[in-house]
Amino acid sequence: MSKEKVVLAYSGGLDTSVCVKWLQTEKNLDVICVCGNVGQEETDLEKKRQKALSLGVLDCKVLDLRDEFSDEYLTHAIAANSMYENKYPLLSALSRPLLAAKLVEVAHEYGATYVAHGCTGKGNDQVRFEAGVLALDPDLKVIAPVREWDLKCRPDEVAYAHEHGIPVPEGANDNPYSIDDNLWGRAIECGHMEDPWNEPLDDAWTMTKSPENTPDTPTYVEIGFEAGKPVSIDGEQMKLSELIIKLNKIAGDNGFGRLDLVEDRLVGLKSRECYEVPAALTLLQAHKALEDLTVEGDVLRAKFALEQQWATTVYNGKWFSPLKAALDAFMDETQKFVTGTVRLKFFKGNLTIVGRKSPYSLYDYGLATYDRDTTFDEKSAAGFIYLDTLSLKTWSKVQGPGSGIA
Ligand code: ARG
């Protein structure tokens, strides 16, 4: 009888390579690996494929997901100005649902009963993978080897790898950090930074220069948007994935995009997280600046509250959910006229928005100028204030400071 099949989210690193052997030996399953290219630094995915094949997997699919990630995931994140707890631009939370969707697709292709991932039981990513998979196919069963096995630390995993003939990269025990990265940036955890009092060491950063070592003159950049989506840099049209790669470099070279945070995980604990998100922060700030110019005020303020909800929903793994779909519908409606150009100035680790323009700008010079000769009828302000303060005046006289009681 042929074995049952499991589709594993495979990064090619130590954890998921050990997962392969563990699923084969402990669970007696045929393993199919899925390795997604979402723009991570480590790009030799063919080598990882060969490594998986050498471990006896049935197949290892390497999928270039950079455009799908940009066009179907990051555009929504930009539209929602997404910042979890108003500070974290959600990079890992955005890639997991896409990878989950691919696991489901491949599971269907191979008639697999199970999907598996290499996440620990303490993080958010396990929730995102599993919620994504189960929302798309509630009949699939999930295995999380790292939550089940007795390998307590990295040296245990290295020992297991040696025992089972899994190639272990040199220095596998030396890297102190846990890294997750994609086009939207890089998350750095563990090591020296587990004490939130410790300043991150220089070797934690790879996408951004230290502001001390950046150019002494500012760099100006213009980002063009169409209906909320970034489409050009300095007038040159390009697809979003390319634009992000280019902007990561420009912003990173100017020392912009480092974050050092304590954030609240879905599983109830606080964690110290460092991030490098040069393009993400740049695009979110530029996009917001263009919205300020083009989106009507009531909509902007209503949107602000829903943006927080969007980010929390996605952080918590509910990418594929009716709430997220409804929030996206709202966001989409707000983006129709977010078209125009934003001018940015990078200098020594800082980003300043120095200009914005749009054919749909709601900024009206005639109304806004402090010159007296304008289209704004200042006399009607008196009537406005009379009515606007009516309830306040009544309150003051009867119950408040004007009542003579207090
Ligand atoms: N704290 C971030 C999040 O929950 C980053 C997680 C990074 N994942 C990792 N496997 N290192 O989205």
From TrEMBL:
Q: According to its UniProt record, which reaction does this protein catalyse?
A: L-citrulline + L-aspartate + ATP = 2-(N(omega)-L-arginino)succinate + AMP + diphosphate + H(+)
Listed binding positions for L-citrulline are 88, 124, 128, 178, 263, 275
The entry marks the following residues as binding ATP, namely 9-17, 118
Which GO biological-process labels does this protein carry?
argininosuccinate metabolic process; L-arginine biosynthetic process; urea cycle
| Domain Arginosuccinate synthase-like N-terminal per the UniProt entry, residue ranges | 5-167
Top enzyme class: ligase
Where it sits in the cell: the answer is: Cytoplasm
Q: What is its pathway? A: Amino-acid biosynthesis; L-arginine biosynthesis; L-arginine from L-ornithine and carbamoyl phosphate: step 2/3
Q: Domain Arginosuccinate synthase C-terminal: where?
A: 177-394
Please name the GO terms that the record assigns under molecular function.
argininosuccinate synthase activity; ATP binding
| CDD domains cross-referenced by the UniProt entry | ASS
List cellular component terms (GO). cytoplasm
Keyword entries, A-Z? Amino-acid biosynthesis, Arginine biosynthesis, ATP-binding, Cytoplasm, Ligase, Nucleotide-binding
Principal location listed in the UniProt entry: cytoplasm
Chain positions recorded as L-aspartate binding sites = 120, 124-125
Which EC number(s) does the record attach to this protein?
6.3.4.5
Q: Which family does it belong to?
A: Belongs to the argininosuccinate synthase family. Type 1 subfamily.
Read off the HAMAP family from this record: Arg_succ_synth_type1 (MF_00005)
Subunit architecture: Homotetramer.
User: What protein does this entry describe?
Assistant: Argininosuccinate synthase
The protein's organism comes out as Collinsella acetigenes
User: What's the source species' lineage?
Assistant: Bacteria, Bacillati, Actinomycetota, Coriobacteriia, Coriobacteriales
